Amino acid sequence: MRKTTRQKLTVFFIRFTVWFLVVAFLDVFGYLLYTSYDEWVPENLERIAKKAQTETEQTGSTSSLLEAERFVFNFLPSIIITGFNTILPIFLNFASKFERYRSTKTELRVTLVRTILLRLASVAFLLMSFFRQLEPKQFTVPPYNEAIFTVANVTTTPCFETYVGQQIYKVLVLDVLVAVGLFAGVRVPLKILHTVTGIEVLSFEFDLSGNILSAIYIQCLYWLGIFFSPPLAGMAVLHFLVVAIVAQLGIFFVFSPSTKIHHSSGSDVFFTVVALFAFFLALLVLGFAAVKVQPSTVCGPFLFMADYPTMYAYFMATFKTYLASAGFLVDVAASSVVLFPVTVCLAVILYYKIATARAKADGIKILKQKIETATAQKKFLEQKARQLKKFS
Predict the structure, then answer these.
(1) What are residue 150's DSSP bridge partners?
(2) What is the mean pLDDT of each run of 10 residues along the chain (392 residues)?
(3) Per residue in 218-233, is it b (16+ CB within 10 Å) or e — as a string?
(4) In whole angstroms, what is the distance from residue 287 CA to residue 297 CA?
(5) For the whole model, what pTM was predicted?
(6) Whole-angstrom Cα distance, residue 190 to residue 184?
(7) Which runs of consecutive H residues, i.e. helices, occur in 138-261?
(8) 33 neighbors 126 (Cβ within 8 angstroms)
(9) Residue 334 phi, psi (nearest 5)
């Protein structure tokens, strides 16, 4: 049944409104994150520090309320990011119901694309907030001088590697705590309520695609964080172990199978591409940090490189000092003479793989059409045979 012009305009207006709300949602998140890093956190922590100093001088200790306030403002950016990633799937699933897509498959794809874009945008906002803490002076930091390194004179983040590692650590710790808290404090009680009274407040379908995207998002943060804080590698094992246990308990006792159909072959390719894109995004950021940002001159995991302008300069100097041939090979590999042919070869290989995949998909479609045609012919012949039997 074809839609009228009025129905088409209505659907277009609804979808446009939903996309507008998605962009507005992202803008609000970016504003809150930037403001928290630039204004709320430093101003309030400074106020709390002065108040704590006053209380310590008067009573000899600080109040628990003041310590709780300090804790909240220390974790405020992480709370904003975790809240955004918690509300995001609920909002997108709710909004997609009003867009009137023709099939559940299209609705699922649109929701996944939006989720991916907003998750990657949250990572991008987080990274930009980190680099905003590094003034341009940080890129050319002079040698450390204890005489000028005072609280009043520091205008940059002297240990930015530690700072970045701490912020990513806070986001990941809060993420796993929220995941466990939502499961134990919300999902389980609502499941018990639904079992006893039949009242269904939330959907208990297991969101397979949402859990996979969440795992890719967490893995991307670990790829970024391990470079600045190597102990995060051990935390990643514990994090994914806890997430896996929570998901398994949910599948066994709380969630029901999803009604949305996931085609295994297409889903595997889709999620693999998303994971690779997140991996290359992390490599791009880490490559920028290695090539453009000077290691901290005061502390951090790369303190031994502080005499060099960048980490890349340190690696190149090490290569050229101990392995002259290796340094020459690195220079050659990084030159356009090698990079251009390699890029062209990779593009040709990628095109070949895509063309092969399309040819296989077309072959599958042709085979399906042949099977459908053979089935229709078989039904037609059976019908004719029945008619002949009646006349005979």
Answers:
(1) none
(2) 74 84 83 81 82 79 80 83 82 76 74 79 78 51 36 48 82 88 86 80 76 86 86 89 89 76 60 83 82 74 74 76 63 70 84 84 85 84 80 66
(3) bbbbbbbbbbbbeebe
(4) 20
(5) 0.70
(6) 10
(7) 160-182, 188-197, 208-228, 232-249
(8) yes
(9) -85, -5
